[in-house]
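Consider the tokenized backbone below.
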């Protein structure tokens, strides 16, 4: 067994590093913080407590539309006709895009009305345009929730208002937010837009600002969605991107709008300040070269079949290392995509994580004459 210690690469490992609530005091009933690339949960507070997700529900409403757009079953310029059912919410004191019965509105404008203006009326118009009724649309929402692992969520409508059985957890909202950013990068940009002007029927154009307070602080925030219900108080799913790093936070039960903004920013800043995330390997990219015995090449390039990122507290870096282990030199022939070794990540000499390494190429055996020469060299010099 040959072991290579990659001491020049700063490596992080999965230490189940969820930090206790004592390390930071976040004034919310329930909250969670995740590093996007590694998936590591950095903080949680009663993260599986049931909540009313309020307008954070609209994240799933947009995901259903983005899914159809990605598949080519819907396009941004397609127009839906506004029903009286959708219009009623624009005239009932709720967050609205201010659409009118009979308006024909493009999918893109409805999405902006949902994401930026938080329009409940736009949610129903989009849901009815896609599924015929909001009830049928909610079925799609729940199917998607189950598909992506939201085990403690039930959606009963597209907006999150007037729905006592519309329930979730901050952990599930985090799962949904992560899925949104990872799978729809081209559409996620809407969540970073600060205002939307709707040229409404029967009145002057109305411009509304994005309700996410963190977008206006010049800190790298680019989403995601606020929420409010009188019982639940204030909530926010937020994301911040600094250079190549992204953190996602979800909190609910903030006492005021101001507390929602300050506490969410506090949590995100704490994550950026106290933790580092380092890339170990990207899916399908060249990672290293391993020695080959009796092959037409002396080295074989290897790769991993997944992105490997690790996040830990900055102060613990000195305890981390990565090693490649393989039975080597590896005897030819070697087939492309064959498992030829492992990456092993350790902390204080305790193995914490292991990943397979795959050959990126086919390597044939040398001819018989070359194999004899190699064997003689090995006997004489002890060096393949």
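A designed sequence for it:
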């Amino acid at each position: 067994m040959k072991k290579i210690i990659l001491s020049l690469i700063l490596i992080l490992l999965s230490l189940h590093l969820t930090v206790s609530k004592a390390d930071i005091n976040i004034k919310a009933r329930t909250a969670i913080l995740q590093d996007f690339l590694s998936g590591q949960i950095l903080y949680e507070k009663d993260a599986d407590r049931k909540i009313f997700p309020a307008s954070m529900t609209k994240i799933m409403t947009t995901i259903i539309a983005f899914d159809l757009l990605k598949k080519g079953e819907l396009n941004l310029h397609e127009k839906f006709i506004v029903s009286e059912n959708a219009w009623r919410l624009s005239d009932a004191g709720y967050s609205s895009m201010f659409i009118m019965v009979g308006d024909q509105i493009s999918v893109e404008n409805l999405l902006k009305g949902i994401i930026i203006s938080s329009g409940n009326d736009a949610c129903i118009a989009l849901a009815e345009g896609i599924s015929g009724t909001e009830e049928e649309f909610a079925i799609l929402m729940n199917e998607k929730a189950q598909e992506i692992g939201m085990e403690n969520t039930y959606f009963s409508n597209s907006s999150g208002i007037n729905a006592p059985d519309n329930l979730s957890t901050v952990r599930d909202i985090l799962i949904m937010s992560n899925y949104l950013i990872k799978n729809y990068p081209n559409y996620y940009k809407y969540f970073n837009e600060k205002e939307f002007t709707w040229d409404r029927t029967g009145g002057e154009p109305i411009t509304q600002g994005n309700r996410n307070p963190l977008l206006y602080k010049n800190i790298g925030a680019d989403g995601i969605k606020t929420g409010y219900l009188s019982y639940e108080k204030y909530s926010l799913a937020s994301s911040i991107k600094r250079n190549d790093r992204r953190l996602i936070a979800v909190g609910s039960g903030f006492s005021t709008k101001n507390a929602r903004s300050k506490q969410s920013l506090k949590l995100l800043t704490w994550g950026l300040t106290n933790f580092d995330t380092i890339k170990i390997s990207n899916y399908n990219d060249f990672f290293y070269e391993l020695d080959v015995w009796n092959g037409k090449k002396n080295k074989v390039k290897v790769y991993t079949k997944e992105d490997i990122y690790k996040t830990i507290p900055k102060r613990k870096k000195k305890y981390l290392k990565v090693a490649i282990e393989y039975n080597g030199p590896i005897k030819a022939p070697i087939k492309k995509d064959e498992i030829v070794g492992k990456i092993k990540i350790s902390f204080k000499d305790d193995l914490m994580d292991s990943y397979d390494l795959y050959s990126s190429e086919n390597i044939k055996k040398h001819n018989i004459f070359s194999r004899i020469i190699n064997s003689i060299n090995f006997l004489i010099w002890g060096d393949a």
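The domain at 28-254 is CATH 3.40.710.10 (Beta-lactamase).
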